[in-house]
Amino acid sequence: MALTVQKFGGSSVASPEHIQRVARRVADTVDQGNSCVVVVSAMGDTTDDLIDLACKVSSKRPAREMDMLLTTGEQISIALLAMALQDLGKDSVSFTGWQAGIRTEAVHSKARITDMDPSRIFAELEEGKIVVVAGFQGVSEDGDITTLGRGGSDTTAVALAAALKADLCEIYTDVEGVYSTDPRVVKFARKIPEISYDEMLELANLGAAVLHPRAVEYAKQYNVPLMVRSSFKSNPGTLVKEEALMEKGIIVRGIAHDLNVAKVALVGVPNRNDNLQAVFQTLAKENINVDIIVQSVVHNDRSDISFTVAKDDLHRTIEVLTQLKTRLGANEIVCEEELAKVSIVGAGMISNPGVAAQMFQVLSENGMFIKMVSTSEIKVSCVIDASDVHKAVRVLHTAFGLDAVEAAAVAK
Amino acid sequence: MALTVQKFGGSSVASPEHIQRVARRVADTVDQGNSCVVVVSAMGDTTDDLIDLACKVSSKRPAREMDMLLTTGEQISIALLAMALQDLGKDSVSFTGWQAGIRTEAVHSKARITDMDPSRIFAELEEGKIVVVAGFQGVSEDGDITTLGRGGSDTTAVALAAALKADLCEIYTDVEGVYSTDPRVVKFARKIPEISYDEMLELANLGAAVLHPRAVEYAKQYNVPLMVRSSFKSNPGTLVKEEALMEKGIIVRGIAHDLNVAKVALVGVPNRNDNLQAVFQTLAKENINVDIIVQSVVHNDRSDISFTVAKDDLHRTIEVLTQLKTRLGANEIVCEEELAKVSIVGAGMISNPGVAAQMFQVLSENGMFIKMVSTSEIKVSCVIDASDVHKAVRVLHTAFGLDAVEAAAVAK
């Protein structure tokens, strides 16, 4: 008998009918002889409706009270799912975050889990019950209700799977798994059967929205096998685990792209050894996330410092740099907006030199100019013109042998 | 500086605008130098909407999960009110039932409060905060969320006032206070300035919906002064306390009536000393509440046993009695439906004999036939024809000097 933690997101529990369908799905798992803990998010638009209410009442919307408000969304879902399960004759019990023993920092709207006490869940599982837990929420040491921020329900599921030493954590979603790239961009994108935590982390950080990076990090840390699969179909999904088998002849696992990229360059910054840190410490203080950084020495005594930020942060970044410019002694600030980042990810790169070079070649042969490059052991990212990005994804997908079987057939 | 517990019902927090108005009202109390704990119910139709959702998902609707579901209604209200108060510059914090230390029996949908631990509330009050508490809910020893059942938010407010030794518990509602009788029946009904717990209990039990009997009982038990007043107007309301001053010349405080009355008679029951108990134990087992009971010996060896029940229970009552009839040896079962109960309530009756006689005289002079009578120290109830009841309330209201000043003027 296996213990499975199953997580269903907001779109999977969007209506009473959806909840009944999830209940049948959970009941099936139990009927196959498994124990089940189910984590659910708030129903469809509930969270947005609650935020609307808050906006009508308050211009400040203090974080503690927003957490108090928003956590009702998951509480509604767990009660309804537990009821639906009982209607199917399955003994079940629902728990809020605090009841499930999910303890967090005393930080609102984005608390991190500090500690898990799954004793109540264990007790109910031993009595043969299905335990339904509210995702996204926990309780601080002071007894305040907290939320885990974006991707919170995935994180709840993985943390519970770790604490309960579950055999598997299944993340049910509206797609069938993790794809080699965005199926909206590449028709022949294919579902990846297995992927390693590190690869998944890179893909998640690079914009593959199917799993939140925090949940993947947590899964990696506690070695929890994760299965991403469809709420609506019974096909197997994508298994995320420590060591994923590479398919024959494939080095790159997936291709990600991100259109939310702006580039900023500080031109002609005098080469003083505290200038670089001054720039990025100041940006960090302003909570501006910097992605790719390139420093190039243009003369003996001056450098250009270029980096990318999210487009939403561009305006503030320029404000901050304008204030710094004189202190740094820089010549000018240049920025560019119509950019995108395309990335190839694959653990196979470590043992296959020349993958980056192959990427540059493919892009260049297709007439694309690479403006910035960033690499890790298992990833290469290039910043290119936004107008080129969809084509770039397609040609890289083909070049690295990722096109699905149907595409190969078409090519013949 | 006084400590006040203020309770606002669902109609007082029905919309974001209502919540902002409640916030201003609470802020005014604080600006006058008082400390404030505020208890709120779920917004307007929230509870009904949640019940609808549950009905769509489940035919069983287990009580534990219904409590989990319905308590989100008050949690939404407290978060929004705390936000609205902070928008007015008032430091405030919201607490669910479990956070507020409201401990109950491990019974769902109608738990009784067993214990209060107001330490967190005290701590926040000491920091100068307004504490907003979810009504209607508590937590069992096992850590399950429970609800207090009908009138639950009033009970929460009174229990908090008792535990905090508050100077006053104000119940804000959509009427201006407790009236001498139903203003929809008697135009010259008047607001009662003061009333004793016992009188209020009788009126509440007799159908005055403004306060739930449980809350009044709790207030009496812990000697908490209660003020019932309007959420919309600033007029003083009705003060409920241990010893209420009687106005000069007035013995009866209020008149209640109830149209949900059916009479059942077991005719010709042999006089065996276990017959009476057999009837009422059986009804109690079936959860049928019996109100007035009259036994009259018609012959040496046979009696008639008559009693009243709520109309909804009449059908089941007759079923139960039909099964009992042979065992009891009764001749027949007779029932009557078009009945009503009219009651006069006043602590002054204890020291004023003849009040009951005066009531009978007034009804009889007005051509009404009294079918049953029941009395307590501070109440007389008569069962009469339903068609007479509004007239009965009016003539009694005038006869016992309760008509408001305008009526007296009209009479002259």
UniProtKB/TrEMBL annotation, chains A, B:
Task performed by this protein: Catalyzes the phosphorylation of the beta-carboxyl group of aspartic acid with ATP to yield 4-phospho-L-aspartate, which is involved in the branched biosynthetic pathway leading to the biosynthesis of amino acids threonine, isoleucine and methionine.
Gene3D superfamilies listed in its UniProt record: Acetylglutamate kinase-like, VC0802-like
Residues annotated as signal peptide: none
NCBIfam families: asp_kin_monofn (TIGR00656), asp_kinases (TIGR00657), PRK06635.1-2 (NF005154), PRK06635.1-4 (NF005155), PRK06635.1-5 (NF005156)
GO molecular function: aspartate kinase activity
Catalytic EC class: transferase
Domain ACT: 264-347
Designated name of the protein: Aspartokinase
UniProt pathway: Amino-acid biosynthesis; L-threonine biosynthesis; L-threonine from L-aspartate: step 1/5; Amino-acid biosynthesis; L-methionine biosynthesis via de novo pathway; L-homoserine from L-aspartate: step 1/3; Amino-acid biosynthesis; L-lysine biosynthesis via DAP pathway; (S)-tetrahydrodipicolinate from L-aspartate: step 1/4
Entries under InterPro entries matching the protein: AceGlu_kinase-like_sf, ACT-like_dom_sf, ACT_Aspartokinase, ACT_dom, AKii-LysC-BS, Asp/Glu/Uridylate_kinase, Asp_kin_monofn, Asp_kinase
UniProt KW keywords: Amino-acid biosynthesis, ATP-binding, Diaminopimelate biosynthesis, Kinase, Lysine biosynthesis, Nucleotide-binding, Transferase
Family the entry assigns: Belongs to the aspartokinase family.
Organism: Effusibacillus consociatus
Catalytic activity: L-aspartate + ATP = 4-phospho-L-aspartate + ADP
EC number: 2.7.2.4
